[in-house]
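pipeline/complex-builder :: batch 7 item 3
reading input block
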Amino acid sequence: MAALQQPPGYRILGEAELRDYLAQFPKVAARLGDAPHSWSIEEVGDGNLNLVFIVRGAADGIAVKQALPYVRLVGESWPLPLSRAHYEYLALTHQARLAPGLVPAVLHHDEALALTAMELLTPHIIMRKGLVAGKVYPRFVEDVTTFLARTLFLTSDLAVPAAEKKEHIAAFTGNHALCRITEDLIFTDPYRAAEQNRWTSPWLDATAARFRDDLDAHVAISRLKLKFLSHPEALIHGDLHTGSIMVTESETRVIDPEFAFYGPMGFDIGAVIANLLMAYLASAGHERSAGERHEFEAWMLGTVEGVWTEFARKFLGLWRTEAKGDAYPVSLFSGEAGEMRLEVERQTYMALLFRDTVGFAAAKIIRRILGLAHNIDFEWIEDTRSRAVCEARSLRLARAMLVGTATFPDIAALTSAARESRQWQPDFA
Ligand code: SR1
Ligand code: MG
């Protein structure tokens, strides 16, 4: 077993130590208000990797995230570099400049402790929990598409001169251990007999076995893996599921960019769409009576469509006004004919990006059902047969998206297939 990192100055903080630590920083202490001994501190992390503390004082609260030298979900047997806290801080501060108001404000960062203090998002909740409860979020499409369009476009070669972009790529290159998690858990393990895989047994045993023998799926996922490994298109969040988004009815914040690096844009857009599709297909498992969540489900599919169409509209808008990068030199597209041809090319670019999005979305769905890390959309369906029905429908849709990506020419084709999968009954149902 590899040794756990213990760099100088690093120690895992308990609640008491965190109080003493935070009290040293006048700005943080002033934000919390009152004497440090009266602050309440609670460790609330329910993610897969880190400690998360909520600290509340008389004046305000803050959230403090500390990286552990191992994967929390698995334990000390799986070491993980603390440097992920550095990349998360870098990404958060860059995203705050690109998409103001859509990420939490950073109040304090400590490289040695791998710790970041942020504004406390309240009354926001993790979006995934709201979706399981059948809540709709009217502001979500507007905000998430602004986040996606701005963070992706404004870090790409369409917006950033080549030398500057290469410097940015270099700044995130060291986050390879986090990329490796994705490379293994998303693009490899669900398609082979990996020890850590799990699924809803016995219902999905045969389906899981089929994915292990499915060479068409193996080719498709390998092409996506290659793209993930080798296409530094833009600064991507890298783990943009609905557990990395906090919401109220009127606000949205994207959190937790510790997987950030320069990768393919479709990976982020696909992550959002995959998680919405899973919330849609899990919804039947949360019904207390048939049809009870019909309105919610209609909203979910409208939201899937909105995410792509609004993202594409905003991305194209930025391309028409903010194209300051070295790609598509203006001098090659001058005059009316040049501008018209460039507009055709922009549409072609979006069609290819949509194809990537569908493929990556498929990969994200499959990993949550057959791989190590599952999600509460399905896990909170208590009856295992009902859970498996929802999961089998999702796998059916995802496989079609993975091996037949080109058969989804537009977002309406995807939502129509999702609607059809919602009605499909696996043989064990
Ligand atoms: C071992 S980490 C498992 C998953 O948790 C994170 O949220 C990422 O999605 C990662 O793949
Ligand atoms: Mg996370």
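note: DSSP finds 15 helices and twelve strands in the chain.
queue -> next item
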